[in-house]
Amino acid sequence: PSFSTDFEICNVSFFAREDVMDYQMAIADQQPFGVFRESWSDGHVRFITLAVFAEPSMVDLNTPSSYGHGWRCPGIHGDIVEGF
User: What angle do CA 68, 69, 71 make, to 5 degrees?
Assistant: First the structure.
């Protein structure tokens, strides 16, 4: 099975802006139909949309302190580097 750990809270009014909607229409409904031809996921499209149209102060990226991948790998000097 595949499990997703992504969690997003989005401001719908941002995505309803005319310029953002024009962009969304261009990548989905107009040739060359990149979203469908290249199999872009909704997460990729939202990420690119935010990168292009959002001000940095509009985006809050954080990793919950209780979340962890639990991986360990050797560092360059043989030290163990813990995942977060």
Answer: 125
Q: Which two tokens stand for residue 43?
A: 């997460």
The tokens describing 78, both together, are 């043989």
pLDDT digits (tens, 9 = 90+) for 2-46: 555 667 788 899 999 999 999 988 888 777 676 777 777 788 888
Query: Any idea of the CA torsion for 74, 77, 82, 84, to the nearest 10 degrees?
Result: -110
Cis peptide preceding 32, ω within 30 of 0: yes
What is the CB-side half-sphere exposure of residue 52 using CA atoms within 13 A? 13
pTM above 0.85, yes or no: no
Both tokens of 27, joined, read 């990548």
Return the bridge partners of 73, or none. Answer: 81
Q: What is the spatial distance between Cα 56 and Cα 36, in angstroms, rounded to a whole number?
A: 28
